[in-house]
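Re: that backbone. Tokens:
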């Protein structure tokens, strides 16, 4: 979502950091470039002007000009204003039981999928969740929600498939969550191709019956500046408490996220970062600002690691590494886990100086395609070959290459990389400690 904008901003600050002494003219030039970057990212002109004016007011002060590291000071000021522009980091306190959430938005924005993603996210927080849909207009909409929810273990489908009346659906859902002692009820609503009076009246009626604690507006970030108009119109009629941005993993320019709070007053609460049902995260303004300025997001990376790698798996891997054991099965497992992160690119974005790392890995032939190709090669091996790579003679390599659709040279390259990694792991195995990943330290030699 922010790739283009982030690359521009990082480039601007790299120039500033190279300057030994920062002049006011240097600040002016940098801010002009930032203004262009904001506008190219589809940020509202009004928001861009205000942002630049506020940053300049602080950046040309005496403390900045005389600073030992003025470029870093300007970066800090921009970071603070980006956090302010993005808004508050999202939290849901679940103060009531059941905590009722009503999800609204235009048709095609991703409401139904977002409802199930929210349910999956809350279940990870040990909350019992129920879902229902009032979309009686779109063919099979309710059935779609039922099928999607069945893929998330533990979700209560609080709906009678026979009912075709919006009011009855709402009342039935409320009764169900009361009887089931559910922590949260997430209610999907019908979308339209455009905002009309009839739709708003129905949504107001649902709001009156359910009395939701949260009304979340689903916005497809690919709609650009029109998303802000949609948010304004919904906010004029409903008590919108926050927004869910979908398709943020696409190539949208990100201006919607940067403009949403300032233009509409609507806080962003969740980001849908992919197509899988667990590809959703709480919106964290500081972490987004960190990524935008190339500072990385180690906290999110560790949190994601805890979801993808169980502590038991980490302990087992640690024990194997300490014994110098690392097979192709282990390598395949790590590559598969990496794909659950969203791939190599998603991991890089969370690391400081991600742009430099990206270039470095590309130079050494490491990319998403390389990882997928390596995984295909390993899957073409027999169990014995995965456990003992010394068995891989010429004829076996030809068979593996044919099975994975690559040249024999690619198989040889993977084997060489694997042997290099194995050598490194054997040398560092004694110092490997899985506990550090999970926020605890293992005591050794006591």
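Recovered sequence:
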């Amino acid at each position: 979502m922010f790739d283009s904008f982030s690359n521009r901003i990082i480039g601007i600050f790299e120039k500033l950091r190279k300057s030994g002494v920062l002049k006011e003219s240097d600040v002016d030039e940098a801010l002009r470039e930032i203004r262009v970057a904001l506008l190219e990212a589809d940020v509202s002109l009004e928001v861009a002007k205000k942002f630049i004016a506020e940053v300049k007011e602080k950046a040309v002060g005496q403390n900045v000009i005389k600073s030992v590291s003025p470029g870093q000071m300007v970066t800090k000021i921009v970071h603070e204003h980006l956090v302010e522009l993005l808004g508050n980091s999202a939290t849901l306190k679940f103060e009531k039981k059941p905590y009722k959430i009503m999800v609204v938005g235009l048709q095609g924005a991703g409401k139904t999928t977002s409802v199930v993603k929210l349910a999956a996210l809350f279940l990870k927080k040990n909350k019992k969740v129920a879902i229902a849909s009032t979309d009686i207009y779109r063919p099979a909409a309710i059935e779609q929600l039922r099928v999607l929810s069945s893929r998330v273990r533990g979700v209560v489908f609080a709906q009678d498939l026979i009912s075709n009346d919006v009011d009855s659906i709402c009342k039935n859902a409320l009764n169900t969550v009361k009887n089931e002692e559910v922590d949260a009820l997430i209610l999907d609503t019908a979308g339209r191709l455009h905002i009309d009076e009839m739709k708003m009246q129905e949504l107001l009626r649902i709001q009156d019956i359910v009395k939701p604690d949260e009304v979340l507006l689903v916005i497809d970030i690919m709609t650009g500046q029109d998303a802000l108009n949609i948010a304004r119109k919904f906010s004029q009629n409903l008590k919108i408490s926050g927004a869910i941005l979908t398709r943020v993993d696409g190539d949208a320019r990100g201006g919607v996220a940067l403009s949403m709070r300032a233009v509409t007053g609507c806080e962003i609460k969740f980001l849908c970062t992919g197509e899988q049902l667990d590809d959703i995260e709480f919106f964290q303004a500081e972490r987004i600002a960190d990524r935008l300025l190339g500072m990385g997001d180690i906290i999110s990376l560790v949190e994601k690691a805890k979801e993808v790698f169980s502590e038991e798996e980490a302990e087992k891997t640690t024990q194997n590494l300490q014994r110098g054991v690392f097979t192709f099965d282990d390598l395949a497992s790590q590559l598969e886990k990496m794909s659950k992160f969203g791939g190599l690119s998603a991991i890089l974005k969370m690391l400081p100086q991600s742009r430099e790392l990206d270039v470095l890995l590309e130079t050494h032939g490491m990319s998403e395609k390389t990882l997928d190709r390596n995984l295909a090669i390993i899957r073409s091996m027999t169990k014995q070959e995965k456990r003992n790579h010394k068995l891989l003679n010429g004829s076996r390599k030809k068979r593996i290459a044919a099975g994975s659709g690559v040249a024999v040279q690619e198989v040889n390259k993977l084997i060489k990389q694997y042997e290099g990694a194995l050598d490194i792991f054997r040398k560092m195995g004694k110092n490997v400690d899985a506990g550090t990943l999970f926020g605890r330290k293992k005591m050794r030699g006591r």
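Residues 64-68, 430-446 have pLDDT under 50 and may be disordered. Strands lie at 99-104, 129-133, 156-157, 184-188, 214-220, 242-246, 268-272, 280-282.
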